[in-house]
Amino acid sequence: MHNRAGMNPPHGPRGPLRGGALLSFPRHPEAFLRVSRKYGDLASFRVGNQQFVVINHPDLVREVFVTKQDSFVKGWGPVAGNTVMGHGLLTSEGALHRRQRRIVLPALHRQRLEEYANAVVRHARQLVDGWRDAPSSNILADARRITMLVIAETLLGTDIAPADAARVSHALDIIFRRFAGRMHAFAGPLRRLRVRSAKIGAEAGRELRALATSLMDARREQRGDDLVSLLLDTRDDAGDPLPDALIVDEIVTMFVTGHETIALALTWAWLRLARDARAQAQLDAELDAVLGGREPSFDDLRQMPYAQGVIAESLRLHPPQWMLGRRATEPVSVGGVDLPAGVNVLLSLYTLHRDARWFDDAEAFRPERWAAGVEKSAAPFTYLPFGLSIRRCVGEGFAWMETTLLLALTASRLRALPLPPGELGMEPLIVLRPEAKARMAFVARAPEAASAQSSAP
Question: How far apart are alpha carbons 173 and 167 in whole angstroms?
């Protein structure tokens, strides 16, 4: 039961500084988990001159993100004031956001996903070859390289050069760490003190946008059947083309959302499987029964519920976008509490997804909990790895397709060598990464006969 405190402000942590919690508080998922468990579903804290309210109940999620969404904007957190993604789909608001969704949707239609699936499987072979022959692999780095190749070929209409793909990944690394610093309540004053850091971040942003501009210019010279060409061909109500800067914004957004998050989903899935022999055996049995030694295809997706359950469960325990933030633009009541304009409302998906009220044995990795399908297996507003409402990720179908096929092909050819039990270390930036030292080793496996019994529940 969440708090119904009337006009009284909710309780929350108070730090050693006068009037505020610890400076570093809003930066780690475990901090939000502890606060919600100690103070309830509606908690508050102040850091410096900023007031934060943390929500952790589906009723409150619905209130902030759906029924009263017009009272909020994406005003706090890593994407606020983002000069790299500009006004792309991830950061835009209002009418511009709705218009961009309409423009992008045709490139993510189900029929297009079927075409994209072939590219996913083709690139996934590189993962199999690399992991099978290596004594140890940095699976996140490898997955990021492959997902960059996939997003470039499918949505951006180009075969990106390996050097350019590496430049994109390096620039994103810098930018993610730079934006993580903005999740500090005193980010503004501290940023002015970190002049060198700011300069490095700005250079990375310029390089990323320069690469996006070169991709746009190439498609302008030779149109194709891809998202960039679609954006170039779009006209506004006056018949004018979209500004180049807005097209670059969308390309950069694709780099972030279609590259990093999918690679993270696959990485967390394998890190979990390497610590769970039972789950890996269940997955092996399903893949052997469905595929019988051949490569997976788009048509196989519905026949691999356990594989999709592995992805869904990894996204539950390790949501790449682990926190959502909104800023109130006017006085608004949430959970019976009157909040002033300017207050920051935070939702930790890491906390919500690990709540025992919504998920049995919530801390355990149980892919079978998703046997009935994602939409039917979780109560409304309790499982939100792709956001919700009008801001739900437009590429969700693409993400499910790509991650499931990447997992299916790699797991049908390889078996992860066991990793020691224990909690997985994480590095919370604006996305939730595993700790930098996370490495894995694989051995080749021979698929069983196609008649093997499926493990799908």
Answer: 10
List the one residue out of 247, 264, 306, 249 whose CA is nearest residue 399: 264
| Lowest pLDDT segment from 64-78, 243-257, 270-284 | 64-78
Q: In whole angstroms, what is the distance from residue 178 CA to residue 174 CA? A: 6
- Of 389, 340, 408, nearest to 51 (Cα)? 340
3-state SS, one letter per residue, for 192-228: HHCHHHHHHHHHHHHHHHHHHHHHHHHHHHCCCCCHH
Task: Give whole-number Cα distances, 101 to 95, 213, 218, 392, 393, in Å.
Answer: 10, 21, 24, 10, 10
Backbone angles phi, psi at 348, to 5 degrees: -90, 110
Contact 68, 332 (CB under 8 A): yes
Task: Report helix, strand or coil for 157.
Answer: coil
Domain membership of residue 440 (yes or no) is yes
Counted domains in the chain: 1
Domain span holding position 162: 25-444
Please tell me the distance from the alpha carbon of residue 27 to that of residue 22, in angstroms, as a whole number.
Answer: 10
**Angle subtended by helix axes 277-291 and 396-413, to nearest 10:** 90
- pTM comes to 0.89
Written as six digits, the tokens of 302 are 């519905």
Residue 52 domain flag: yes
- For 352-390, the DSSP string reads HTT-TTTSTTTTS--GGGGTT-HHHHS-TTS--TT--GG
**DSSP 8-state secondary structure symbol assigned to residue 282:** H
Q: How far apart are CA 87 and CA 76, in angstroms?
A: 15
Over residues 392-441, the pLDDT tens digits come to 888 899 999 999 999 999 999 999 999 877 767 888 888 899 987 778 99
Is residue 19 domain-resident? no
Structure confidence at residue 378 as a pLDDT band (50, 70, 90): very high
Sequence-separated (6 or more) residues with CB below 8 Å from residue 382: 58, 352, 353, 355, 358, 359
CB crowding 224-260: b at 16 or more within 10 Å, else e: eebbbbbbbebeeeeeeebeeebbbbbbbbbbbbbbb
Rounded to whole angstroms, the Cα distance separating 441 from 437 reads 13
Give the DSSP letter string of 133-172.
H-SSB-HHHHHHHHHHHHHHHHTS-S---HHHHHHHHHHH
The single residue listed with the structure tokens 């992860």 is: 416
Which structure tokens are listed for 110?
């189900």
Give strand pairing partners of 426.
434
For 25-41, what is each residue's pLDDT tens digit?
Answer: 556 888 889 889 989 99
Could you tell me if residue 455 is inside a domain? no
Q: Please check whether residue 424 is in contact with residue 438, taking contact to mean a CB–CB distance below 8 angstroms.
A: yes
CATH number at residue 45: 1.10.630.10
